């Protein structure tokens, strides 16, 4: 396995269509395996494009102002009465984004979603099998919105419920890590920075997702790091930010993630 570290090399590979993602097995029968094999994240070619287009439509349904307001209100409720030094920032970061997204994506029990997604996230990322992850996926699918005869809100896809669950799982660890990284910067001296500056610096210097993988044209797996040096930086030119990836598979939810994380960080800093 090759590791690419310099951000210039990593970006080149991310933008090169000859490099594909390792695919989920189409033979999977267990619930998590089926979720992975139905996701955009582990598919290539036209299947990826079709699923990604649907995810982009779903993200287009989200109202950023309402998400921010919901994230702020949920954070205020969780911090209420707790001294700053005893705040459970990781707990807030792992709960609020998924609950807000589940609410706007029409899940029947948004407050339950963070616990279920937490059960599912690791197995989704690395393909391991676990009964707890399977149960969580089944519960999430059961609470996803469905209408007889098709999609829930006018954006049709045969895989609609699974792709809504994919959005929650993709959001979970990465958005939490952004909130935690930004709060670490506050604790270690960046107390006067604006929240937007904190998020920008965290994304550049302490990326929430550290790496991804691609398969090269010869079939070898390549590890692509988002946190390495950038040989094109220097002399007033900061390293490029690759936190959301690049190219045709870049995170489609950058604005959503930054809006939610920003609202949470603002509330935690105000407490
Ligand atoms: C700070 C928070 C986030 C970070 C750093 C992040 C990062 C990433 C990265 C690096 C990728 C591309 C992986 C690759 O190329 O192999 C990705 C893909 C993806 N992200 Fe995010 N993400 C974040 C939040 C979110 C949120 C909030 C959502 C959903 C609401 C989301 C949905 C997705 C989806 C669906 C994909 C797969 C896209 C595809 O298959 O083409 N992400 N994300």
From TrEMBL:
Membrane spanning stretches: none
Lineage: superkingdom: Bacteria
Region span, Disordered: 25-46
Q: Name one GO molecular function term.
A: heme binding
User: Which InterPro entries does the entry link to?
Assistant: Cyt_P450_CS, Cyt_P450_sf
What name goes with this protein?
A: Cytochrome P450
Tell me what organism the protein belongs to: Agromyces ramosus
């Amino acid at each position: 396995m090759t590791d690419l570290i310099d951000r210039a090399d990593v970006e080149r590979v991310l933008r090169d269509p000859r490099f594909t993602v390792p695919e989920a097995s189409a033979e999977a029968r267990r619930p998590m395996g089926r979720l992975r094999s139905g996701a955009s994240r582990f598919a290539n070619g036209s299947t990826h494009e079709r699923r990604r287009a649907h995810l982009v439509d779903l993200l287009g349904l989200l109202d950023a102002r309402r998400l921010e307001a919901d994230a702020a209100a949920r954070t205020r409720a969780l911090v209420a009465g707790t001294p700053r030094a005893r705040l459970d920032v990781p707990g807030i970061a792992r709960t609020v984004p998924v609950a807000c997204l589940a609410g706007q994506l029409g899940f029947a029990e948004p407050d339950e979603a963070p616990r279920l997604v937490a059960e599912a996230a690791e197995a989704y990322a690395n393909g391991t099998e676990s009964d707890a992850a399977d149960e969580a996926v089944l519960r999430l699918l059961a609470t996803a919105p469905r209408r007889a005869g098709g999609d829930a809100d006018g954006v049709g896809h045969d895989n609609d419920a699974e792709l809504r669950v994919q959005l929650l799982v993709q959001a979970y660890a990465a958005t939490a890590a952004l909130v935690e990284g930004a709060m670490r910067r506050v604790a270690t001296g960046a107390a006067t920075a604006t929240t937007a500056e904190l998020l920008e610096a965290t994304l550049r210097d302490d990326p929430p997702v550290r790496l991804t993988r691609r398969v090269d044209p010869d079939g070898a797996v390549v590890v692509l790091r988002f946190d390495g040096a950038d040989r094109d930086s220097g002399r007033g030119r900061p390293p490029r930010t690759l936190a959301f990836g690049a190219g045709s598979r870049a995170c489609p939810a950058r604005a959503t993630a930054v809006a939610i994380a920003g609202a949470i960080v603002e509330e935690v800093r105000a407490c």
